[in-house]
Amino acid sequence: MNKDDNTNKTVTYETKSGKKKYLVIVLIVLMAVAVATGLVLWNNNKERADQDNPISNQEVENKENIGNKENDLNKENEDMNNDEEMQNPIVTMKIKDYGIVKIELYPDIAPNTVKNFISLINEKYYDGLTFHRIIDGFMIQGGDKSGTGSGETDFTIPGEFSENNFTNNLTHAKGVISMARRDYTYYGKTTEGYNSAATQFFIMLEDTPSLDGLYAPFGRVIDGIDIIEKIGKVETGSNDRPKKTVVIESVTVDTFGKDYGEPERLVPFDINGYVNSLRGN
Hints:
Blueprint: H1 3-84, E1 90-95, E2 99-105, H2 111-122, E3 131-135, E4 139-142, E5 176-179, H3 190-194, E6 201-204, E7 216-223, H4 225-232, E8 248-254, H5 271-279
């Protein structure tokens, strides 16, 4: 091998070595590019994630707000239900020689009639009065100052029943308490008769559908119906008056803290004056 051959070999060797170095550099560059590309992609994904997070947070916040609103609505409904489930007034009627009768009043059915009854009870109006009319198998009636059923009052109340254009779906079933009133139909004053109830009431001894729509039922006996039945068996004389007086010793009412307010009351129709005017007196 001559000198030129060695030089060529050396040159050839150095050229291969240079190619290897070149390949290493290329690989390093490619790796660097790959790393850089990865970093860019990672940053882009992070930025997207960061952009997406507020939407997710907003969705969470919206869900929380919806949940809060639902909770508020549930609370309102619960409060309304509590109001709807408020205890009705309970009347305690002590009847001499017979015992205690408890009556639940229904202000949602006959509100003004209930207000009137509560007002009279609070005035002690019924204390010492009697059941002046008793018809076995029908009803017992009381609440008249005169003790005869013909006593006058300085007020009346509107009749809360269907024939007087008022919706009252409570039927005159056994144990139901309703308001007594006068009947002026004979004199052509039907509406005045419908609005003539004041203080007198009656308690049903049997179901009597014929009274439905013509009188204002406003409560029901919830304890002591046996006492009402016993009173219904009392011997009576003329005008269905009991031969032995049945006295209402006292009447109280528990409204469970609710103030039902004052009743609407009317000026009584002067039937006597009207009849006299018809006669020309």
